[in-house]
Amino acid sequence: MPATRTYASRPKTAQRTDASQARKKPAQAKAGGAAKPKPAVLTQLHLAFDNCPLKACKTCGLTYTRGVPEDEALHKTHCARVQRGLDWGRDEEKTGVQLVDAAANPSPGIHGRIISLRADAGGKAGAKLATVFDLMNTVLAAPPLSQTALKATKVYLFLVKPKNASREHIAGCVLAQRISTSLAVLPTSDTNNAGAKLVHGLYCAPEPLPTPLGIPRVFVPTTYRRKGIARALIDAAARSAIHGCPLDPRTGQLAFSQPTDSGRRLMDSCGVQRVYEEDDDLQ
Ligand SMILES: CC(C)(COP(=O)(O)OP(=O)(O)OC[C@H]1O[C@@H](n2cnc3c(N)ncnc32)[C@H](O)[C@@H]1OP(=O)(O)O)[C@@H](O)C(=O)NCCC(=O)NCCS
Ligand SMILES: [Zn+2]
Asked: Which residues form ligand 1's pocket by a CB distance below 6 Å?
């Protein structure tokens, strides 16, 4: 999962007041040659940052162009979704949705339910998932999953119902896909190991190991973070992604693709010590 920032629109060329234009030529020496040359006139270059139309939002990480209505509107929508997530209506849940945990309670004050559905679902659910995937890809600066990948992927949603709200909120989303192999992340002490391979900034043992489940995307809106929601979703995926075959992340049965810094912490907390390449290791 790549972690670089993304842009709402291509940045325009930043404005710059080039007060100096160019250095002035020193005054020419008088004929006869005795006069001292005048010292060069020093000029200062002022970069007018106040005029720079690009703004990087500290809340959602998006960089957008100030004063461009489409960009401002796009940012407003994205920022609200990053903070509070999207709504989920019962009408989006008509078919193909499995209730994985009816009463999830990962931390005090957080009560919700976990559902799962196919990532290539159609209808209203499919339309909502497309928006959720778009949000996750923008946050992670990740490319969209291919149709082939979506076919091999299940979506896990953590749904909460805030007081007085008529619809539930998606307070977390995890994608889980069938994969074939992954690499074991080496402990820090082993990074000098001659055969170690650097994958997504992590030193790994070079031999691919059979692995049934990969986690290509995880996202929790900022309002709901550090309440155990992502961990609850990973556990739910490990338990139920492969029918009749609960998996144990601590024994190498789960891998993350391209973890971010917080994703790496989450991996540690869930006992996941494997990484994989989304395109190469898909089953
Ligand atoms: C990474 C992310 C999904 C974590 O979601 P979350 O619901 O806040 O995670 P949890 O509350 O389940 O965290 C479980 C444990 O993981 C670790 N952890 C998670 N996020 C962490 C962070 N930002 N810093 C340090 N530790 C973190 C902690 O050990 C935490 O347990 P604790 O809160 O009891 O200390 C969320 O921060 C997010 O959506 N980030 C933006 C997208 C992203 O980076 N996704 C990861 C892609 S691999
Ligand atoms: Zn923002």
From this structure: 1, 139-140, 172, 218-220, 225-231, 256, 259-260, 262-263, 265-266, 269
Residue 4 structural domain: 1-14+41-84
- The letter for the amino acid at 85 is G
Q: Are 44 and 15 a contacting pair, CB within 8 Å? A: no
For residues 48 and 144, membership in a common domain is answered with no
**What's the predicted TM-score (pTM) here?**
0.84
Which atom of ligand 1 has the smallest separation from the CA of 258?
48
Per this entry, what is the length of the chain?
283
Residue 283 is assigned to a structural domain of this protein: no
Ligand nearest, relative to CA of residue 62: 2
Question: Residue 104 belongs to a domain with what CATH number?
Answer: 3.40.630.30
Same domain, 158 and 75: no
Query: How far apart (Å, rounded) are the C-alpha atoms in residues 258 and 28?
Result: 63
The tens place of each residue's pLDDT in the chain, 283 residues long, gives 544 443 333 333 323 333 333 333 434 444 444 567 777 888 776 665 567 789 999 999 999 999 999 999 999 999 999 999 999 998 898 889 999 999 999 999 999 999 999 999 999 999 999 999 999 999 999 999 999 999 999 999 999 999 999 999 999 999 999 999 999 999 877 777 778 888 888 999 999 999 999 999 999 999 999 999 999 999 999 999 999 999 999 999 999 999 999 999 999 999 999 999 987 666 6
Establish if 235 belongs to a structural domain. yes
